[in-house]
Design brief:
four-stranded antiparallel β-sheet; 4 strands; 120 residues
């Protein structure tokens, strides 16, 4: 039986979502939403790109407004290193809303890692 180490163990993170920014693109004639997440610590503010999501708008994009979310809403991400890898891809797994039963995030992570047809 193979030993399970921290390197090949599924890891799940939950970040508090404060709302969703509504962004309009004049080039693509589309509207998208970007989650606004709270950093859980000062260290996370320094070492994460999540804090800069809204500052990385594409050319000709504007923020049209913010959609509120019920408290507490979480963005759930996960990562699972393959054998011999030090760093693995962090995947967006979904969102948790109050009053809605959360799925088994570990099973969703395993399914996402095994699915090569993910959107890029």
């Amino acid at each position: 039986m193979a030993e399970t180490t921290d390197q090949n163990k599924p890891m799940i993170w939950k970040e508090l979502v404060l709302g969703f920014a509504v962004v309009e693109s004049c080039i693509y004639h589309s509207i998208r939403t970007i989650p606004i997440v709270a950093a859980s610590s000062a260290e996370e503010v320094l070492f994460t790109e999540d804090v800069t999501r809204l500052t990385k708008l594409e050319v000709d994009e504007t923020v049209k407004g913010v959609l509120p979310v019920p408290f507490p809403t979480y963005e759930v991400t996960g990562s699972m290193s393959a054998e011999g890898e030090e760093v693995s891809e962090v995947l967006l797994l979904g969102y948790e809303y109050p009053g809605v039963q959360a799925p088994d995030w570990t099973e969703i992570l395993k399914r996402e890692v095994a699915n090569p047809r993910r959107c890029v």
